């Protein structure tokens, strides 16, 4: 078998390109399904627990207001692995954040949560209403975000 | 001086004069070049129109993307990469999912598609203008050389 010819073969190159494209398409599809599943799960928990988390029904009809094709950030499921927006209330171990997407989320804080402002860490109690923040965390089954890192601006 | 009839020896000599051997070949070549030039000019015009339309589409897509990014949480999430790279690395899994969840995928796709069409139009317009210029130069050169 002539390996030089085989390595230069156009058929082999085309096959490699097609396989590469297939891998990229399938990987994108897999990531999309995974992200969509996570968002859908958090959205339904967020909707179910909204009354309990905020003491009133949602301002709009849940996480799926009318819209289409992603032109508006509000036309999708609610993201549960973080949020960015302004603090609308500060509780004993949680804060409520109104996101840039117009959706309110409850963010739970624990002793391991890092809260940072400028270059240094601050205490959770130093957070104030109206302060813009970015939160990274993981969603729980009650439609809340368990914060791991909060950056106040 | 005798009349110019077909039996006149000077006229006979004139009709028998041979055209340059390569004349036919040169005429055909010139016609081919002119055809290629016309085709390249026509394509350059088509792609100019395509370029103008794709430029409009690109700026519309850019404006849409900017608006969507401003409203979405992605821009703020991405700013953490610059301000708190350590925290992003420590919570890479949640951060990656947050970024993916907040990414305005459709606007980004439309923007990239518009950019692709713009660049392709630019590539083809450059190709056909280049070809037209080169063909015109070839014709000029031949005219200078008296061919």
Based on secondary structure, the structural category of chain A is alpha+beta
Oligomer: heterodimer
Portion in beta strands of chain A: 25-35%
Give the integer mean of the pLDDT values of chain A. 80
Distance between the termini of chain B: 36 Å
Global outline of chain B: rod-shaped
The portion of residues assigned to helices of chain A is 25-40%
Distance between the termini of chain A: 65 Å
* Pattern of helices and strands of chain A: HHHEEEEEEE
| Mean pLDDT across residues of chain B | 84
Query: Which value, in Å, is the CA radius of gyration of chain B?
Result: 32 Å
Instruction: Please describe the biggest sheet of chain A, giving its number of strands, its sense, and whether it closes into a barrel.
Output: 5 strands, mixed, barrel
Q: Globular, elongated, flat, extended or rod-shaped: what is the shape of chain A?
A: elongated
SSE string of chain B? HHHHHH
Low-pLDDT windows of residues of chain A: 64-74
Number of helices of chain A: 3
Structure description:
The complex is a heterodimer of chains A (153) and B (147). Chain A is an alpha+beta fold. Chain A is built from 3 helices and 7 strands, in the order αααβββββββ. Chain A is elongated, with a radius of gyration of 22 Å. The termini of chain A are far apart. About 7% of the residues of chain A have low confidence. With 147 residues, chain B is an all-alpha fold. Chain B has one domain. The longest helix of chain B is centred in the first third of the chain and has 49 residues. Chain B starts with 8 loop residues before the first helix and ends with a helix. At the A-B interface, helix 2, strand 1, strand 6 and strand 7 of A face helix 2, helix 3, helix 4, helix 5 and helix 6 of B.
